[in-house]
Amino acid sequence: MRYIDFENIMSPNRMGRYLTACIGDSRNAMTLYRKNLKLSQELFTIVSCLEIALRNKINCLYLNQKGDNWLLHASSVGGMFDTINSRQTKNIIVRCIAELGPLYTHAKLVAKMDFGFWRYLYAQPQFYAGGQVLLQVFPSKPRSTPLIQYNHTYVFNELEKINGLRNRLAHHEPVCFANGLQVRSTLYVRQQYALILELFQWMNIDETSLLYGLDHIMPLCNDIDAM
């Protein structure tokens, strides 16, 4: 495809960053765009695996401690999220239950919750409302030191980084540029990828086996950096 046709489809504004990063070489700009798409696809797959693993770990923990319909009970009057500080979490659950209507099951409700919902269970109000047990999801996280407290706030902040990456991918934002610059760089991807692998390890999940055949992040990054 000619660059002008490619640009008309993707928009000149969108392609401008790629063209600048490739020093005006239109063919390389199209190549970089396609490589960014491939990297984004692989990243989204890996983020999805982390999201599913996290929600299942949290769900299993609360199923054992709070019963089969813990989300429903948590959002009911007097439930653990029926507080001023956890109102948003309660409202999300109530809305999703209403959307499911007669099709409601606990499993379907769990599946409707997005990454942000699970992340916010580590926020201070939700973490304390839930009995301060959610760090059990990460049995192999490092022990806290005087310099770094590996507590629920630390986990919340780490998950926020992954949530940001997820949203960036979902909105088709590029991941092949230096932050705020029109310069090729995979540093951001490498940092988030390392964090994802670390979080799997904290959950005692063998990420190499889990992601077998799915994970080509580093070769893709190297390919982009070598352009």
Rg, please?
Answer: 21 Å
**What portion of the residues fall into strands of 2 or more residues?**
under 5%
Which percent range fits the helix content?
Answer: 55-70%
| Structural class based on helices, strands and sheet pairing | mainly alpha
N/C terminus separation? 20 Å
Order of helices and strands: HHHHHHHHHHHH
A few lines on this structure:
This protein is mostly helical.
List the helices and strands and how they pair.
Blueprint: H1 3-10, H2 12-21, H3 26-66, H4 70-74, H5 87-100, H6 106-112, H7 115-120, H8 124-129, H9 152-170, H10 187-202, H11 207-210, H12 217-225
Helix pairs in contact: 2-3, 3-9, 3-10, 3-12
How would you explain this protein's 3D organization?
The chain has 227 residues and is mainly alpha-helical. It has one domain (3-225). 64% of the residues lie in helices and 0% in strands. The protein has twelve helices and no strands. Helix 3 (26-66) crosses helix 9 (152-170), helix 3 (26-66) packs parallel to helix 10 (187-202) and helix 3 runs antiparallel to helix 12 (217-225). The mean pLDDT is 96.
List keywords for this structure.
12 helices, mainly alpha, 227 residues, single chain
